[in-house]
Structures are given as C-alpha cells and as structure tokens.
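Handout, page 2. Input:
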Amino acid sequence: MGEYLEEMAEKGWMIEKVGHYMAKFRAVEPKRLKFYVDVYEEGGPLTPEKTEESEEYRKLCQESGWTFITSLDYLQFFYADRDSEPVPIQTDEEIEQKIIEFTLWKKELFGIFMLLAIAA
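Output:
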C-alpha cells in the first residue's frame, strides 16, 4: 500500500481520505515521499477517529518524523519526505506481525459474530 501511495505522490496525487472501497486523492505538486500504514490496535469500526489515546499515538509518530494523513478503522496512514530519516513506527517485525494478525483476526471475528447475531 505504501509503495502505491509513493507512486501516486510522484505523479502529483496525495491521499486525503481512505474508505472501505475507495480512496480520495487531491492534486499536489509531484513529491518524493515515503508512506507508512500502521495497524493501531486501539482503533476499529466502532471507535471514533479521534480519541485521547489515538491523538497521543499520532503525536508520538509526529515527533518521530511522520505526518498523519488519515485513518480507517485500525489502519493509520502517515508520510514523510523520502530524504528524511523518521524513526520507524514499528521496530520489531515479529511484534508488528503479531499486532497485525491479532487485530485483523479480531476484526474478522467481530464481523462474523455480528452476522450471526443479525441472522439469529
């Protein structure tokens, strides 16, 4: 996803908002940026985009050199200048993989339970 957003930025399109099926871009001067999409465990479809915890998390990412763009459920979208060296948001690949698996499984199970509740 990050590579696609980098290509779009080089063509002059900056991601503005992400939906479940579509994304909204705005025209900008072509830029060489790097993007990072992080899975934020405290997010979700029933969680507001702005909570005290999410604002603190985004502030820490900002202090690490990343600029917050938007979010969708658990996904948080950030960018930085390609020539900069922002601190990685996730530094341990094994822990990052566990967060992704746990969070996405939680989301999928929630959806299944909701369908079962509606069907019942």
